[in-house]
Design brief:
Protein name: Erythromycin esterase
Number of strands: 2
Helix content: 40-55%
GO biological process, one term: response to antibiotic
Radius of gyration: 21 Å
InterPro entries: Emycin_Estase, Hydrolase/PRTase-associated, UCP036794_erythomycin
């Protein structure tokens, strides 16, 4: 039977991913599990608050845990054939979790530098994971990626890529898959969203500010329709494409949303 899977692509599961790798190894290779626990033990003090590891690594000036977590991944890959023979799907999940740990260690270590490097590492990791999931599911596999507009759109055509030097999964997918890839974003002039005011704060239901007139959401409101789907591909009417050719602001409501300072933040 053809089955669908549900996979996480992001790096924000350091503690859970370490636990998943260890649980897998406890089951298939207890000796390797002991070694992995020693390697991952480097991150133990920061599993609940991994951002503190990044601050510590920056203040000390070196990657304290880079080698141990990389070695844990290499150990897993070295025993790939034996583990695959026992349970291929379980090994695939463990491998992806081990890769998350290595990517998360890098991510939290460089996030304090405040440039595009941490963003690009994160989205490159998400795209690499997507490619591995597709390859694991077979040559005719397909995927739907659910993420915020800032990840799904093509960064090359926005200030993200043109000014800040950032890439995203939409850009990488379009470059890799061409016309086999469809990028679908969404926006609104009004309504409510679930977001927080700051990182690590509780979710709130926030009312969205009316869209600015110089934004795509404002232009969409002016169309006079309550809701609509608009295709902007090469076969779209020239008049529609011309109307959207002018560079405009686009909402980027993510995990954090501050309505009172939306344009600045």
């Amino acid at each position: 039977d053809r089955q669908a899977g549900f996979y996480g692509l992001d790096v924000y599961s350091l503690g859970a991913s370490i636990e998943a790798v260890l649980l897998y190894l406890d089951r298939v290779d207890p000796e390797a599990a002991q070694v992995a626990r020693q390697r991952y033990g480097c991150l133990a003090p920061w599993r609940a608050e991994p951002a503190r590891y990044g601050h510590m690594a920056m203040s000390r000036g070196y990657a304290v845990c880079e080698k141990p977590v990389t070695d844990a991944l290499l150990d897993l890959l070295h025993n790939r054939l034996g583990y695959l023979a026992k349970d291929g799907d379980a090994f695939f999940d463990a491998e992806q979790n081990a890769r998350i740990v290595t990517a998360a260690e890098q991510y939290y270590r460089i996030m304090y530098y405040g440039n595009a490097q941490s963003w690009n590492l994160r989205d490159q990791h998400m795209f690499d994971t997507l490619e591995r999931v597709l390859a694991n599911r077979g040559s005719d596999s397909k995927a739907i990626v659910w993420a915020h507009n800032s990840h799904i759109g093509d960064a090359e055509f926005t200030d993200m890529g043109q000014v800040r030097g950032e890439l995203n999964i939409g850009q990488l997918a379009r470059a890799r898959f061409g016309d086999d890839c469809a990028l679908i974003g969404f926006g609104t002039d009004r309504g409510t969203v679930a977001a927080a005011s700051n990182w690590d704060e509780p979710m709130e239901i926030k009312r969205v500010r009316p869209a600015r007139n110089d934004s795509y959401e404002g232009r969409s409101r002016d169309a006079g329709l309550d809701a609509f789907f608009l295709e902007t591909g090469p076969d779209q009417k020239t008049s529609v494409r011309d109307a959207l050719a002018e560079p405009l602001l686009e909402r980027a409501i993510g995990v954090i949303y501050r309505p009172e300072t939306e344009l600045l933040s």
